[in-house]
């Protein structure tokens, strides 16, 4: 019996020997105003900027429940030992906990909630499944930065995601001020794909989740992007959310203030964009980083 391996063209080559800027070959918004809660103007703005903000996505009661759960998880020694937990390089404080949509009932509920999934389906124009989820703590005083990157570049190179038909939502669990390391996005950068130089090391995720190395864009190109697109700093109160396209150039600074900057981060991928073999890595990342369970979310 012969097995046919579905060959998927690599439209977004990366981690080879040159750093190039490739125009996006795919639409950003796949759905229509009739497909969900976003109106035509919101969808147009998302297509143009690559992100949108949602005021008060969750209730004050849900916010308190999530914050209590965040504290409980960070203090659980078993959680700290788990391979899905990443700790800060120097302080040993919890930096991120991955796969919380599967390991935790409270976060599984919000990850499959219509307030979130309906929006992801509308942007992606199809049923969606969860490619990845994480809690980012960014604790006060010691929360480290996330350097400039495109999530899609990593998900394409290391998880085998064919096209950028994926969207992330970051639900703020603490207030995001200009000074405590909020998300920064270059508006419009998602329409251009920056390929990176340098091969992906074996087991790259073991260091990339603390400090990304492979796939980091070239500083000269980053400077050109910053000059061309500018940098939006996404401040906002706890309970709000930001949705952004998988190929937005984004980053966040470290947090030297006493005020932690914690969020829940969930990545929705179109069921028509399921991963194949990695496009630029020796082997696929573990399932808790790039899920191979394509069960539609919210069903
Ligand atoms: O490697 C990843 O999948 C993760 N890294 C970053 C910095 N953002 C996206 C994602 O959570
Ligand atoms: Fe990211």
Automatic annotation (TrEMBL):
The lineage of its organism: Bacteria, Bacillati, Actinomycetota, Actinomycetes, Micrococcales. It catalyses: L-ectoine + 2-oxoglutarate + O2 = 5-hydroxyectoine + succinate + CO2. Its EC number is 1.14.11.55. Keywords: Dioxygenase, Iron, Metal-binding, Oxidoreductase. Homodimer. It is an enzyme of class 1 (oxidoreductase). Involved in the biosynthesis of 5-hydroxyectoine, called compatible solute, which helps organisms to survive extreme osmotic stress by acting as a highly soluble organic osmolyte. Catalyzes the 2-oxoglutarate-dependent selective hydroxylation of L-ectoine to yield (4S,5S)-5-hydroxyectoine. Residues 278-299 are annotated as: Disordered. The keyword Cell membrane does not apply. One of its GO terms (molecular function) is oxidoreductase activity. It comes from Nesterenkonia lacusekhoensis. This is Ectoine hydroxylase. It holds the Pfam family PhyH. It comes from the Bacteria. Signal peptide: none annotated. Belongs to the PhyH family. EctD subfamily. InterPro entries: EctD (IPR012774), Phytyl_CoA_dOase-like (IPR008775). Its cofactor is Fe(2+).
């Amino acid at each position: 019996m012969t097995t046919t391996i579905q060959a998927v063209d690599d439209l977004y080559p990366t981690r080879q020997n040159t750093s190039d800027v490739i125009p996006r070959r795919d639409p950003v918004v796949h759905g229509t105003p009739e497909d969900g809660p976003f109106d035509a103007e919101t969808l147009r703005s998302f297509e143009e900027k690559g992100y949108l903000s949602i005021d008060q996505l969750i209730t004050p009661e849900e916010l308190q429940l999530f914050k209590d759960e965040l504290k409980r998880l960070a203090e659980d020694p078993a959680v700290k030992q788990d391979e899905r937990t990443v700790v800060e390089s120097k302080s040993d404080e919890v930096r991120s906990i991955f796969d919380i949509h599967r390991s935790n009932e409270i976060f599984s509920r919000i990850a499959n909630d219509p307030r979130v999934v309906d929006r992801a389906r509308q942007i992606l124009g199809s049923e969606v499944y969860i490619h990845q989820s994480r809690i980012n703590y960014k604790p006060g005083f010691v929360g480290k930065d996330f350097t400039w990157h495109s999530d899609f570049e990593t998900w394409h190179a290391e998880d085998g995601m064919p096209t950028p038909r994926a969207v992330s939502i970051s639900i703020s669990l603490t207030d995001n001020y200009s000074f405590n390391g909020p998300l920064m996005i270059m508006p419009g950068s998602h329409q251009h794909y920056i390929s990176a130089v340098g091969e992906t090391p074996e087991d790259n995720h073991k260091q990339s989740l603390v400090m990304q190395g492979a796939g980091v864009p070239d500083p000269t190109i980053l400077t050109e992007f910053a000059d061309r697109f500018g940098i939006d700093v996404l401040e906002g109160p706890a309970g709000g959310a930001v949705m952004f396209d998988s190929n937005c150039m984004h980053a966040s600074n470290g947090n030297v203030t006493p005020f932690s900057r914690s969020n829940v981060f969930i990545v929705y991928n179109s069921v028509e964009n399921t991963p194949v073999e990695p496009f630029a890595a020796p082997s696929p990342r573990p399932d808790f980083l790039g899920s191979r369970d394509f069960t539609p979310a919210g069903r």
